[in-house]
């Protein structure tokens, strides 16, 4: 049976927050102009974070390297190779209190210039990083990250060649995707797989995470070229394969032959992520779950000393 949330219920906090992303991205592009601490062309850069922030780090790293600005790696803060030489490290942390991020920045102090991108300036990250970019207008009350993550990516993306124009275009697409009807078959599915290539693989991972966090759903994410190497076995009628950006030649036809629904595309991949966020919220509500307060999660992971 297709999930049908009650039309009389008020939108969740997460739903209201994710709808503000187009304006957040425009502000981020303005903030990036002349911002201190952004990576310079030719620098060898590492980008880090935890959870959602790590996925945004992956997307930015792929964008920067593809733009020819220099070698750029992405690592979870807990697995950062601290002995590896870099010219600059960028940390994405919404709360500014995440233990692994703070420990990493403190360990790099005096050895590598660091930039923290955060939503809250009144946290320990201000002292841990050399430079801090505060995107406080994109902060959230919900535990689930939506607009801060994409706004941090918009800020970093805007600092690349032609990046401000790309963010403006993404914001225009996003203004449409915040209200476009979601495919009914995607809402009624029992399994969702997200695919991406290059910088959009981080977005695919984030879309899958949103579905798991908010809706407790069976979701997976893969690089698009790797999908043929095993994961396509789970494609079937009643399941969804959602692509961020163009698919490799021939893959769309292979997916369609399985009977799975092929979704995504047609907009800037960042804007398409908003549709996936909306899908997560809608499926969660159809299952009687609160998308603002996922099970077993807190706003920030602060570990005991």
TrEMBL record:
- Which PROSITE patterns does the entry link to? SIS
Molecular function GO terms recorded: carbohydrate derivative binding
What are the residue boundaries of the SIS domain, all occurrences included?
35-170
Q: Which InterPro entries match?
A: GlmS/AgaS_SIS, GlmS/FrlB_SIS, SIS_dom, SIS_dom_sf
> Which keywords, in A-to-Z order, does the entry hold?
Repeat
Tell me the Gene Ontology biological-process terms attached to this UniProt entry: carbohydrate derivative metabolic process
What name has this protein been given in UniProt? SIS domain-containing protein
Organism expressing this protein natively: Streptomyces cinnamoneus (Streptoverticillium cinnamoneum)
